[in-house]
Design brief:
It contains 10 helices and 7 strands. By secondary structure, the chain is of the alpha/beta class. A 3-stranded parallel β-sheet has the order 3-4-5. The chain is globular, with a radius of gyration of 19 Å.
Length: 203
């Protein structure tokens, strides 16, 4: 197969070439530079920028406006901040590259529900107000479909269903197998035969 971005095949491009085309990844696990401060971490995201110091400073201030907690902790060493703050830092660092698309991998992992909601609200704002596209990989189907515009459901590495997020939320199979709703006549998710029979797309 092939992967295209704005009509250009990109599957063989290096990570640096991808960043130059405006695609930045926020990896699973909140990877921050533990020994650097929050602000130093953020500034590493602007390493490839060529539009001048003033533009970078403006982006930094924008990041702080979206993540005020980071501004409060800007001089703190990343290793000594909370999981939520590290996730915000990782997203903020991606934004410092002035991206057109952010690949966001499992942002809810290991975070308290309240922090997850806060992070997703900010991501939604960034998408709406800054027109940054987010391609989200997320196992928490409930929150993913609440905030996404369009969704793909993968089983064993292949797409088994896709559509508008609202339509997926209302789909009976999605409700049962991913949102924990319905399915009262099935004894257990571990009943593999029943699971595959009722999951019609696995037939």
């Amino acid at each position: 197969g092939s992967i295209e971005l704005r009509g250009e095949r990109i599957e063989k491009l290096s990570p640096s070439d991808m960043v130059n085309r405006g695609v930045v990844q926020v990896m699973e696990g909140r990877h921050c530079f533990a020994h650097l401060t929050i602000e130093e971490n953020l500034m590493t995201g602007a390493y490839t920028r060529k539009d001048g110091k003033a533009a970078v400073e403006a982006t930094l201030e924008k990041v702080y406006n979206y993540f005020p907690r980071l501004k409060t902790r800007r001089t703190s060493q990343a290793a000594y901040t909370s999981g939520g703050e590290q996730q915000m830092c990782a997203i903020g660092r991606a934004l410092m590259a002035n991206p057109k698309m952010v690949l966001l991998d499992e942002p809810s992992m290991g975070l308290a529900p309240q922090i997850v909601e806060e992070v997703f609200e900010i991501v939604k704002d960034l998408n709406t107000k800054e027109r940054v596209t987010f391609l989200l990989a997320e196992q928490n189907t409930n929150i993913a479909l609440r905030y996404a515009d369009y969704g793909y459901i993968l089983e064993n590495g292949r797409i088994v269903m896709d559509g508008e997020a609202k339509a997926l939320r209302e789909n009976e199979d999605v409700k049962e197998f991913y949102l924990g709703m319905g399915g009262g006549d099935r004894k257990s998710f571990k009943d593999n035969k029943s699971y595959k029979r009722r999951k019609r797309w696995l037939a």
